Amino acid sequence: MQESFSFSRPDLDRWRELLGPVALPAQRRTAIGQLVKSSISARTRDAVSLSAYRALGRRYPSAAALAQAGAGEVARVIAAVTFADAKATHLVAALRQIAREDGGFDLSHLAHRPLGEALAWLERLPGVARKVAASTLNASRLGRPVMIVDTHVLRVLQRLEVVGASVNYRIASEAVTGAMPAWRGDDFLGFHVALKRLGQEVCRWDAPVCEMCPLAGVCPGAAMAGVARRGS
What we know:
Blueprint: H1 9-19, H2 31-39, H3 46-59, H4 63-68, H5 71-77, H6 84-102, H7 115-123, H8 130-138, H9 151-159, H10 169-179, H11 185-201, H12 220-224
Helix pairs in contact: 2-8, 5-6, 7-8, 9-11
């Protein structure tokens, strides 16, 4: 059972407007490519995980080749990411499970399943929780309307009191996704990118710079810090 949430639908539309436009990539990865990228990205800087993903692409020409690799070999290729050994083990196991069950790596069937079913299908895979599942569906060519919540996004949502301090990625994702039934995939992806950037650059975990935040006018934390209300 989800907890009650403090925002209404107009809040999120307004917040997205205040955050400003976000440039989305003109070309998206395939669903399997996005699954691989997201699986090695947790708690790793974007530049590092992207470099590791590209290194995998140079070493293994296809998802099938990556699935056949040894986990130790894959871990050496992605050694710069955090928890490389565990990520490599989970990734290889997940790809092998997909190969057994689907007979390939197309994953186009995830475009046609009900959203909850598609998320659950992905979350059965080793190492795949809500963040990776949502990213696979939303940030790939599938472009499905589901909110991706990572550490930075969750922190911003908590400080805005959208969700409580004890809420996890899954509940936060479901809360935002459920609140905005009219949003398209690009709307959710743009909101994710904008909130992630805000969390990385302004709403930092150790020292938020509230006076530079475009959401200061609607943020309880900024109000408590005495920041002048803007954009309300």
